[in-house]
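Q: Sequence in, structure out?
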Amino acid sequence: MNSDITVLKTKQRLSEEFDRAIEECLLEKLPLRKTLGRIIPLLCRILGAHETIIRTMDENLKPLSMKSKGFREEWSLLVPRELPEVEFEPKTFPLDDDLLVVASLDVVDRVIGICGFVFKGPLSAGAASLKAELVDTAAELLDNYLESIASSARKQSITLYSTEALRDRIFEHGADKAVAHLCSEMRLEEFILVYGDSDSAMGDDLRYRYYCDGKMKHNSIDNPEPPFMDILQDRKRTLNEKDNSFSRLLPGEGVMEKPLHSGMGSLIGKLIIRPKDGGLNPESRDIIRIFAECLCQRLFDYNRERRYLAKCFCPRDVQRLLSEPDFYGRYLSPREENIVILYSDISSFTSICEKVLSDATEIGELVNRWSRKVLEILYSRDGVFDKMVGDCVIGLFGPPFFESSMEERTENAIAAAADIVRETMALGVEMGLEERIREAGIQDHLTTSNGIHCGPTSVGFFGPNEDYTGFSSAMNHAARLQGHASAGEVLVTSALLDNLPGGPLGIAPREDLTVDFAGPWEIAVKNVTRPMEYYRCYFNKEVSYE
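A: Exactly. Output:
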């Protein structure tokens, strides 16, 4: 009975003095090594030990080993240098007239250290058992303190690694590295990253990457799997926090979903996680939360960059740009290239605004709907949107990769102009403007006037707002040619037709489009000595050249 009371009092004293000492060390902001240098002698005094050793990890998760001056080298051999994978009950080792008690420092299923205390002997079996019990209590006190240090270190380590990995210019490459590290550190068996742009109305802006044991197995870009893509196609379902369709693709217990929110609170993705051991403890969930925050910040920057590029380039080109290192320097910094330039302007726009459209709202609707159609056409024909000046859209053919031939650029620009004329007329019918325009005596249809030219042009991001555009005399000539075109006309320069093998003999840029040319004619160009020679395009019909 007396021994039980003594042990109980000793345990209570251990707890009280340990807590008091730890609090003082925290107030003094002592590092781990100095804290242990103060705590371990305290434990030895209360336990009655005269030598000690401790092996654990420091604030940077690096091995840390400390022992008292009298702790003999041969005793050290009984204390493993490498931390064991699983915890163990305190072990006693007779040392001549002394006794060594070794205990593991562990929390839940993870060993974070090992300690040993040497007591003067000889001790009876009962006394040795009591010493082992007291060492076990001391180990539990050290467990909790060291685990808080290790937990903070693990969180910091994962945060630093994830942040550094996600700095990769190619988002997917950075995500792969960050996820691999996280899965290794937290023993995650399966991991799905769903990500996209909450501000985009396009379903294909949602993507996924599936990992097993930290290795990327398939994704929506390179080798999509039908079950995953089926879920992804329903954008509303995918970006619903309550939907767990992806979780059902991962068999087993302990599956966790973590939503990814933008700074404005909208959902921009999800993490779907299945750990190997069927569950995540509070620390692991906190690490997942930190990892999700790192991803959210990177996704915010990534989507902002995508939206910025999407103002000029088609989705396919945006994806390629973002998937290549230093894409700005390689493709978007100003350079001189031989390109094709298309100017397309709504014919008689001022008259239509004054005589046909009733208010500014109608004008705005027309411009918005028309410009969106033109943009779709440019993108479908491998064009780039330069800018919109009033009701005139400027398209460039060649950028951003400059891999097509001048023949291809020329055919694409002419085909785009034909599409614009056709779709503009269709829009007039759709909006009920055709008859109103005709009744106002303006022209027969809602249509455009178009000019196409080519030449060396300095292309890239320019100005304080870094707009993607081009500068050259060729740009000016294309503008003047468009200004000379009548309603529904597509005018091209002789220089442009020099890019075609047959010259002005007629071409077929697409199976459903044949083009013939009438001309040449000439127009004077201001501040230019020689007049500009041009041809008129006729689509899908024969032309007399008499």
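Residues 125-165 form the longest helix (41 residues).
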